[in-house]
Amino acid sequence: MNVATLNQASQQEAAQLLRQCCTSEKWISRLLQARPFADAQGLAAAADKAWRDLAEIDYLEAFDGHPKIGDVNSLKAKYANTKALAGGEQSAVDTASDEVLAALAEGNRAYDDKFGFIFIVFATGKSAAEMLELLQARLPNDRDTEMRNAAEEQRKIFQLRLETLL
After folding, report:
1. Predicted confidence (pLDDT) at residue 27 exceeds the cutoff of 60
2. Counting C-beta atoms within 10 Å of the first and last residue's C-beta, which end of the chain has fewer, N or C?
3. Could you tell me which of 2, 62, 74, 1 has the C-alpha nearest to residue 30?
């Protein structure tokens, strides 16, 4: 696919393509309104602009589109519609030791209990152990700080997915 194809797609088709990159409906709506895009850089800039200043509920909606890091069942269920774009993002978890996976699962529970949303991390290129270190480093944060951290990680993720989409 290319930018021209995205520009020419129906609202419904374009929304479905964008939903593979981020599940915030407000973000999708803003991007649909921003069409047509001149090129990939224009799409990337519009995606960032659409992401800025969303309400917390919109960020949470985007976070909800992610599986928990290391949760294979969650990966299968939540990524059914984004498998082509997101499948390799957590591939390092596949080779992790049982000990690291157990620590990730426990860390995810603690994170969700504390912040009310799952741990979001730009996982591409990171080992399971690195993701565990990041999770543990972010656990002491306050909720506002962590909401900003998670939103920035989500932004990196949708940018990679948009790049992959094209």
Report:
1. yes
2. N
3. 62
Total-model pTM: 0.85
Counting other chains too, the contacts that 116-120 makes at CB distance below 8 Å and 24 or more residues apart are 116/143, 117/60, 117/63, 117/64, 117/147, 117/150, 118/63, 118/64, 118/66, 118/68, 119/68, 119/69, 119/150, 120/63, 120/66, 120/149, 120/150, 120/153, 120/154, 120/157
Amino acid at 97: S
- What amino acid is encoded at 144 in this protein? D
Query: Do 87 and 75 contact (CB within 8 A), yes or no?
Result: no
Judged by DSSP in three states, 121 sits in coil
Among 30, 66, 68, 78, the one annotated catalytic: 66
The beta-strand segments (E) located in the chain are: none
The count of other CB atoms within 10 Å of the CB of residue 74 is 15
The length of the chain, given as a count of residues: 166
Assigned token pair, 105: 């699962």
* Burial group, residue 77, by CB count within 10 angstroms (0-12, 13-18, 19+): exposed
Distance (Å) of CA 1 to CA 16, 24, 39, 129: 14, 22, 12, 34
Q: Residue 66 catalytic?
A: yes
Please tell me the predicted confidence (pLDDT) of residue 71: 60
